[in-house]
Amino acid sequence: MTTLVDRYRDRLPLAAGDRVVSLGEGSTPLLHADFLSRELGIDVWLKLESANPTGSFKDRGMTVAVSRALAEGARAVVCASTGNTAASAAAYAARAGMTAAILLPQGAVALGKLAQARAAGARLLEVRGSFDQALRGAQALAASGGLTLVNSLNPDRIEGQKTAAFEIVEELGRAPDVLALPYGGGGNTRAYARGFAEWDAGMPRVLAGAAARRGETLASAIRIVDPAHRAEAEAAVRDSGGTVVALTDDEIVAAWRSLAEREGVFCEPASAAGLAALQKLGASGTAVVVVTGHGLKDPDAVSRTAAPVVEVDADPDSIAAGLA
Question: What are the structural domains of the chain?
Fold first, then answer.
């Protein structure tokens, strides 16, 4: 197996002798979106980061952050999370033989992500407060010694995540005209900007889809009131000629349904925010939409937003009536 670090070690902060903690992350599909291309009148591609081992883009940064923590002698990692970081940190810590301590904002983590972290043996603590409060707690715990913070405030996370931009350029043969992605904490936006800059392929216009009501959105992965990377991420967006696009939950859900019903791509609602931004503003040329997390991360979203199951008897007439 060729790991992400194997492919790009010369561009990552790992020494030759460091043990690489890997689950086979990276090399995710870049899928042409036939229906969306026709609908929007441009060439649309989907970067399926949902195909990473724990089902989200977080694995790119976590392989580097946990490998670096191991090389530096850490025996435990800590993070605050709305879910995807928790699942990734738990899995990579388990792979490394380390303990993962995870602070979760109370009642704000989707079931699929919580199940992943629990299954991997992480120590889960539900904080009576918001994600931002949980993050401050994780930072204080790391500062007290003995644990390495593996939120995206850890620069090794950004280093790993920038490799998605490398892959896009390699697949397309150039940078796209537009990059559309969700905007929660801003770390991924910052990472893509760094990746395109380091590859010297030109910077696409960035459309960063954010929930208009950050603290209340149904898109739990981007339910972050105070983005940790706001200044850097929004500067990167402005410098690209792009914009931060405020989205209603209805717009996010409509994009989520388009991905599943028209392209067969099942993602969690937050992962459709990039497409929602592209649909709202439009674009020209070639656009890459980053799909950040798998739909099984948030199975409850399906019951809230999809058509109900129809109950029928096991006979042809009843089945035909149910299909009408």
Answer: 4-56+156-304 (3.40.50.1100), 58-154 (3.40.50.1100)
